[in-house]
Amino acid sequence: MTIQQLKYIVALDEERHFARAAEVCTVTQPGLTIQLKNLEEEIGIKIFDRTKVPLKPTKLGTEIINRAKKILRETNEIRNFVINEKNLLEGELKIGVISTLSPYLIPLFIKAMRETAPKVNFIIKEANTGQLMQEVENGMLDVAIMATPTGHPHLIEHPVFKEPFVAYLSQNHPMAAADFYEIQPKDKPELLLLHHEYCYNAQLLDICNIKEPGKIKEQFSYDISSIETLKNLVRAELGFAIIPQLSIINEKESQLFKPFKDPKPVREISLVVSDTFSKKLLLDKMNEAIWNCLPEALKKDFSYKKIRWNDSPYFIDKVSKF
Predict the structure, then answer these.
(1) What is the pLDDT of residues 280-303, one digit of tens each?
(2) Do both 281 and 291 map to the same domain?
(3) Which site in 75, 133, 239, 316 is 20 to 30 Å from 114, CA atoms measured?
(4) Which residue intervals define the domain HTH lysR-type in the entry (predicted)?
(5) What sign has the CA pseudo-torsion 14, 19, 25, 31?
C-alpha cells in the first residue's frame, strides 16, 4: 500500500469516473486502474463497485477511503512541519506594509527582527490596502502588516495590536487646551484625508460621522499620501487631521495632538497571510517582535471602539471605480 495509491482512491471517490480521476492525478487511466487493482488484491477487499454508473465505493471501500483521507491529511502536515522546521527562520520573506503605518513601525520592527531571525532576508514594500490584499493573495507578498478585518475569504488575519487614533490640531484650535478631543461641527468640513488611502479615509469618515470629504478651506483640492504632510497642513491652519498614535511617537509638539475619550477609536493591526501560508513559527516571531517594540502606551488595556473600513459605503464606492 502506497501514499500514491491512497491518493488515487480518494480522487476516484471524488470524481466517480476513471478518466477524470486519472486527469486529476496526472496519470494515465490504465495506470490508475492497475494501481487500484494492485491495492485491492493486496488488501483482499473490493474498494469500488465497477458495476455501478457512476462508480460507487463498496461499504468497506467507503471506510477505507475515509481512513485514506485522514492519512493523506496527516502526511501533508508532516511534510509541512519538516519544511517549516528547515526553512522557517532562514531564506527570504516579502512583507508589505500600509503606508500609514510603515514609516513609524518598520524602523522598530527591522531592529527587533535582526535579533530574532538574523538569517532571514526581509524584503519590505510600502503600499495601500488594496495592493497589499491583492499581492498577498497572488503570492507576490508573503505577509502584509495592515488594518483589519479585511473581509477577504482567502486571507487569514493574525491580530497584533490595536492602535488608537488621535486628533491633530493647530495651536489656535478651540480645543487646543482641552485634555481630550470631541468632534466639533466646524471641524467636519476641514478633515484632511490621504489620496488613494481609501480604507484609512473610510475609518476617519466613520469616526467623524461624515459621508463625503470636503476640500481645504473650500478652495484647494489636494493629492497627498503622507501623514507628515497632513501634520504640516494642520500647523499651517489649513484643516485638522485624525492620525494613528504611532505617527506621533517622536512628536515634540505634544500640545497639537489630543486623545479621544473612551471608548477610543482604534484600528486593528494584523499580520495578514494567504490561506496557504505555512511558515507559522516565523509568523509568531514577527508577531512577538512587533508587540515587543511597541510603546508601552499601546500595550495597556483600555476601552476602545474598533473602526472597520471594508464595509464603508465610501470605500466600496471608491474601489468600484477601478
Answers:
(1) 888 989 999 999 999 998 998 889
(2) yes
(3) 133
(4) 1-58
(5) positive
What pLDDT digit, counting tens, does each position of 226-259 carry? 899 989 989 888 888 999 999 998 877 677 899 9
Q: Does the pLDDT of residue 317 top 90, yes or no?
A: no
Give me the domain span that covers residue 68: 3-86
User: In this structure, what CATH number is given to the domain that contains residue 38?
Assistant: 1.10.10.10
Same structural domain, 153 and 227: no
